[in-house]
């Protein structure tokens, strides 16, 4: 058990976040958002804004520096008159103070030629199309056997549609950039990001620079949940403002503006058809997904991909259909794909359990498989059944009465539910440098990110273990694109990817260490590109099982999650303390998804109405009572030198289904549209 190495710095305020770097002569940016959902900017009247003392510049499509929109259309700020969605940035003010910038932004008058925005995802939308791929490289559709016929011929059939709403990531630290241009034309960015290296390369392209001319510093990041996995308009806005004014410029996206400009999870509509034998053995699985993207850029959430991994069935189909609406581009949010997809799959499995009378744990065991059903690949390890069994033991599942809506404790109806979890064990190439210092200590450098996960601590443990040194003698420096290039903190791949580079660099250094370290130190580096590329073919996934107990007020339908228990199989757990926090954090986010989180689209004006955490509800302490996480021993030689699978995302996967299934068990009401609010239960 190792505490977060930076915990003291964080709680004392010594840890610096992007907005907090003290720089001389800094100016502040404030953005103007489009007040129409679709159309063109006719004119931008900046006169009143410019009259305000302390206004340094007003930027819009009329005067903004030209940038390259190819890397990501959402980064092409002020490059055209087109308004692609309500809330898009159409102008900005740079001022001496934040207050001046904001007041001036309020005074900018933008005239539009407006059209009615098309913002409603529906399954009969004429614009629906099949994307070439879903994220990142999966086929949009798959089919094996005769799914339609097999479904029709099955003795037991479940045919239901689940929906999930748009959800916004809402990290505590908003998306923030401090930009400084040097006289030599290079750009320094203090940024709140999940990947300093990827911001460096993307922003270099946007501004037509060589990557060596851009440096991104991000040692501490206040959460991201995927929304900081790629640079956001704040980076471009701060850099443009700094270029135009010749001053360092800070821009933190206000919470109110995050709902349109920093990403969110697409809403989904998911039709599921399960055909089974009377004993619950699956014969056909059909999963058809409908979701949205924007007119700016295609983002295709891979919602049906976990269905390709989870359960055996000879006949199967998955499909994804997208429609490009006049909305902000959806993006990554914790376990994109797996989170909405497994919510639906694990809810419909519960429905099958009810219809067949097979216990929900046993139903999943009965449909377990030792090969990935659609790829045919062997699993590098798959311990779903062990998680289900250990979870059932710890939770006290045995002897559960399956009848819904019959357990009363005073005014409360009580029920329990289970759901499975899964998440792929990805690995990305990267590099690291390890140094032996003359004073006997070691320094490891890699452009990794710690967004609150404990990655810095895990990497230090990995380096110390490889060097066979005490952890106190090893320092791992991260969060700087000047360090060896690293992949983003995303896809639960960070520790596996960066850790492998750290191991290889430290091994190489150890091999070269014999006797005295020279006065200038001794250095070794590693590049894992070949190692990552040449891995044997296995289906590599983490698995888990989640159990929930809820009580529902029979009069008001208020729902309370009394306890929640997860058991996960994630390879070797490198640091139990931070691993447990990751699981519990994910499960907590699953409670939010099940009961609270909902971004509400205003069909008339065409944007998400939520503006803050009073309108976008996430669980508070009172909502999170008894949540605990465990893991099974799992030794998997096919992963990486640490033997670890990712842990950042699997905690949310299946969590909402476990809660929803418990609500059904408590009340007998099956709500198929998240979130499960009292209004939907009554
Ligand atoms: Mo995660 S949504 O892959 O940062």
UniProtKB/TrEMBL annotation:
Name it.
Xanthine dehydrogenase family protein molybdopterin-binding subunit
MF terms (GO), sorted A to Z = iron ion binding; oxidoreductase activity
Domain (Aldehyde oxidase/xanthine dehydrogenase a/b hammerhead) spans 12-116
In this record, what's one Pfam family? Ald_Xan_dh_C
SUPFAM superfamilies xref list: CO dehydrogenase molybdoprotein N-domain-like (SSF54665), Molybdenum cofactor-binding domain (SSF56003)
- Tagged with keyword Oxidoreductase: yes
Q: What is the lineage of its organism?
A: Bacteria, Bacillati, Actinomycetota, Actinomycetes, Streptosporangiales
Keywords carried by this UniProt record: Molybdenum, Oxidoreductase
Keyword presence, Oxidoreductase: yes
- Source domain of life is Bacteria
């Amino acid at each position: 058990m190792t505490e977060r190495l930076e915990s003291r710095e964080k709680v004392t305020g010594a840890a610096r976040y992007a907005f907090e770097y003290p720089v001389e002569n800094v100016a502040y940016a404030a953005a103007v958002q489009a007040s129409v959902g679709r159309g063109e900017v006719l004119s931008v009247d900046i006169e009143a804004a410019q009259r305000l003392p302390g206004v340094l510049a007003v930027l819009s499509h009329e005067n903004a520096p030209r940038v390259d929109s190819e890397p990501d259309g959402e980064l092409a700020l002020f490059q055209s008159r087109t308004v692609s969605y309500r809330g898009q940035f159409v102008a900005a003010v740079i001022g001496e103070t934040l207050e001046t910038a904001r007041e001036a932004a309020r005074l900018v008058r933008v005239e539009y030629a407006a059209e009615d925005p098309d913002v409603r995802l529906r399954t009969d939308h004429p614009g629906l199309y099949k994307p070439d791929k879903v994220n990142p490289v999966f086929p949009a559709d798959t089919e094996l056997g005769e799914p339609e016929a097999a479904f029709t011929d099955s003795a037991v059939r479940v045919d239901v549609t689940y929906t999930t709403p748009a959800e916004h990531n809402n990290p505590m630290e908003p998306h923030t950039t401090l930009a400084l241009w040097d006289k030599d034309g290079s750009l320094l960015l203090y940024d709140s990001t999940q990947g300093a290296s990827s911001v460096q390369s993307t922003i270099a392209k946007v501004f037509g620079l060589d990557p060596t001319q851009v440096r991104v510093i991000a040692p501490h990041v206040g959460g991201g949940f995927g929304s900081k996995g790629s640079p956001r308009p704040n980076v471009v806005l701060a850099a443009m403002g700094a270029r135009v004014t010749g001053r360092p410029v800070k821009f933190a996206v206000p919470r109110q503006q995050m709902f349109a400009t920093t990403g969110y999870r697409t809403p989904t509509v998911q039709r599921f058809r399960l055909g089974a034998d009377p004993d619950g053995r699956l014969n056909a699985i059909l999963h058809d997904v409908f979701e949205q993207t924007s007119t700016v850029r295609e983002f295709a959430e891979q919602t049906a991909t976990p269905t390709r991994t989870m359960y055996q069935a000879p006949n199967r189909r998955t499909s994804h259909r997208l429609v490009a609406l006049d909305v902000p581009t959806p993006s990554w949010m914790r376990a994109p794909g797996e989170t909405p997809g497994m919510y639906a799959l694990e809810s419909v499995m519960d429905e099958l359990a009810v219809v067949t009378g097979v216990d929900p744990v046993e139903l999943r065991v009965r449909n377990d498989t030792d090969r990935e059903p659609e790829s045919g690949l062997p699993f590098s390890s798959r311990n779903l059944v062990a998680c289900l069994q250990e979870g059932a033991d710890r939770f006290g599942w045995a002897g559960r009465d399956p009848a819904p809506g019959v357990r009363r404790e005073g005014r409360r109806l009580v029920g329990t539910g289970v759901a499975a979890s899964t998440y792929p064990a990805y690995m990305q190439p990267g590099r690291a440098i390890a140094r032996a210092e003359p004073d006997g200590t070691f320094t490891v450098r890699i452009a990794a990110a710690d967004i609150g996960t404990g990655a810095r601590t895990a990497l230090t443990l990995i380096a110390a273990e490889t060097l066979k040194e005490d952890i106190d003698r090893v320092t791992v420096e991260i969060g700087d694109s000047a360090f060896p290039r690293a992949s983003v903190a995303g896809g639960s791949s960070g520790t596996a990817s960066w850790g492998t580079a750290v191991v290889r660099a430290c091994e190489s250094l150890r091999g070269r260490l014999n006797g005295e370290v020279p006065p200038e130190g001794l250095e070794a580096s590693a590049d894992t590109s070949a190692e990552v590329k040449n891995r044997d073919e296995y289906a590599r996934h983490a698995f888990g099982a989640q159990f929930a107990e809820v009580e529902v007020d029979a009069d008001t339908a208020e729902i309370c999650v009394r306890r929640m228990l997860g058991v996960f199989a994630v390879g070797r757990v490198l640091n139990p303390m931070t691993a447990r926090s990751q699981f519990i954090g994910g499960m907590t986010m699953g409670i939010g998804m099940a009961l609270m989180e909902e971004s509400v689209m205003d069909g008339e004006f065409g944007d998400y109405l939520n503006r803050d955490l009073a309108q976008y509800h996430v669980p508070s302490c009172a909502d999170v009572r008894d949540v605990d996480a465990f893991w099974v021993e799992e030794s998997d030689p096919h992963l990486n030198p640490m033997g670890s699978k990712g842990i950042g995302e699997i905690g949310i996967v299946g969590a909402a289904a476990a809660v929803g299934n418990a609500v059904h068990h408590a009340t007998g009401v099956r709500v198929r549209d998240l979130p499960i609010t009292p209004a939907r239960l009554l």
